[in-house]
Amino acid sequence: MEYLSQTGAIETLDTACLIIGIYQDAPSASFGPLPMLGDILQKGDFTAKNGQTQLLYETPGINAARILLLGLGKREAFSAKTFSKAVKGAIQCLQTAKPTEAVLLLPDLGQPMDLARAAVMAAEDAVYQFDVCKTEVESPDHPLEKLGLYVANLADSKAFEQAIRQAKAIADGVRYAKDLSNLPGNLCTPTYLAEQANELGRRYANLDVSILEEAEMEALGMGALLSVSRGSRQPAKLIVMQYRGGQSADKPTVLVGKGLTFDAGGISLKPAAKMDEMKYDMCGGASVFGVIQACAELDLPINLIGIVPSSENLPDGDANKPGDIVTSLSGQTIEVLNTDAEGRLILCDALTYAERFKPEWVIDIATLTGACIVALGHHASGLMGNDDALVQAISQAGEAVDDPVWTLPLWDDYTEILRSNFADVANVGDRAAGTITAGLFLSRFTKGYRWAHLDIAGTAWKSGKAKGATGRPVPLLMAFLMQHSQ
Ligand code: BES
Ligand code: MN
Ligand code: ZN
Q1: Of 74, 270, 321, 462, which one is the catalytic site residue?
Q2: pLDDT, tens only, 62-91
Q3: What region, left, alpha or beta, does residue 408 occupy, with left being phi > 0 and alpha being psi -120 to 50 degrees?
Q4: Rounded to two decimals, what is the model's pTM?
Q5: Looking at the domain assignment, is residue 52 inside a domain?
Q6: Please, where are the H alpha helices in 328-433?
Q7: Is 285 helix (H, G, I), strand (E, B) or coil?
Q8: Most CB within 10 Å of its CB: which of 333, 377, 427, 466?
Q9: Which residue in 230, 258, 279, 344 is the catalytic one?
């Protein structure tokens, strides 16, 4: 969808639909020149509950062909977050109506730029459909194509337009991450992801892509990563995307995303229920693709490297077996007590590999532990790290864009849980503190730089009727990177 900034007299806006937000507890404060509002509210059908909509066809005194009343909920509870929810309601309503274009009046509370960003993100989420694999597509007869974002008095129209442009690029990054994630495992293989990276590299002049094949990984000594792909017929790939938007002396941020295109558990096979959802085990990798695309699109003045170790985890005659001991790129030996704890095995070699880029800091993103869902549910991603300032900056970025995280401790006290009688470390402990012990495992490979780890097991996709990828934590990562590129 296209978004544009709009200003001027409301009466003169030529649009098929003017969307007017109404506060539940202060309807008249919402919008002055709407004479029939009192009568409408008196009828009692439209109560301005958040997200409620009411189309009006009589629009005396204004050029707009329709008005869509949009409930904003209580005024004192209003925020960019509640506004997002309302905007989704408005878009859903318009998708079943005739207008292909509309103008949304931004409410008087909050910063117009923040509200515009929230509106763009919410609208893109509301119109998202993944139907590339359907031959019968249920799309709206009159899909919305253009949304104006109206502010009466724009203090700085350039900045406002820039905010819209940024939000659209970030929303496109989210869309890209969702598309990659929703694609099934038979189509989205490590080879497919590598092709996607090459495609991105062709699209942007300052993005260089290289793919390490299994033979090169073998020569380097990535024994942990390669032990995972042994159980699969699809060759593993280590995808490296280097975006050069900053000065050549600027140290890069490195993002490492888990790219398990299907996780059956290996010989420690998972139960059948919901196993299809393990196609989403590459959502961390997909978020790296989304962020790289958004940064390149916006020409952000930073250096950013995306590393996506990609493999399948399947049981085969040649697969990793419980008790096997493998040697990682770092030289540390790992006893594979459970082949289903494969994410940390591919990540640890990618994290060691990241050292060669002399990073400013490294953030890994992974659907790493079911335990993270037990601890935090589907609301917050788990955050851990070895640098308090970095952890805090990420946490604040998540809060600012409603992509929340919660910090868990990486205390030494838990280290004993991963002790092995036979190797330097075991890849699993017992059931206790599963998310923390996974983080602690990774921390053994990140001693050379400032590092943070995002466990997105509970936030990267939704199950049930609304099954689908969320594109998280692309918004968080973009907020973090943009904050640190100024
Ligand atoms: N990809 C899974 C984690 C996962 C499971 C994410 C369910 C989202 C939903 C990961 O590879 C895994 O299997 N982890 C194991 C670790 C355990 C063996 C220590 C888990 O969480 O059960
Ligand atoms: Mn697993
Ligand atoms: Zn996994």
Answers
A1: 270
A2: 999 999 999 999 999 999 999 999 999 999
A3: beta
A4: 0.98
A5: yes
A6: 343-354, 370-376, 388-400
A7: helix
A8: 427
A9: 344
